[in-house]
């Protein structure tokens, strides 16, 4: 398995966490979220991957949406984190830090 595959696997597993983190910074619509994730180095995230994650978050009460009709063009479905979503993000951040520490310890012992 090459480095590209490792990177893709890591990015895929971190995608839900990254999506929550981006949404926590600002209300955002789905396409803009995909663009932001690409800017942060997640490559091209397909809508067929991202939108089911967002739907699950909304079903679980982590996100809510509203329609932005203030801009020109069609209304945009805007997403924002709920209080429950912020709590979930905090837990995800802690879990990510724990995993990162564990991987660092394993890596250092192997040298």
Automatic annotation (TrEMBL):
Any idea where the Transcription regulator PadR N-terminal domain is? 20-89
| Pfam families in alphabetical order | PadR
Concerning InterPro entries, the annotation shows: Metal_resp_DNA-bind_regulator, Tscrpt_reg_PadR_N, WH-like_DNA-bd_sf, WH_DNA-bd_sf
Which superkingdom does the taxonomy of this entry point to?
Bacteria
Q: What is this protein called?
A: PadR family transcriptional regulator
* Organism (species): Glutamicibacter ardleyensis
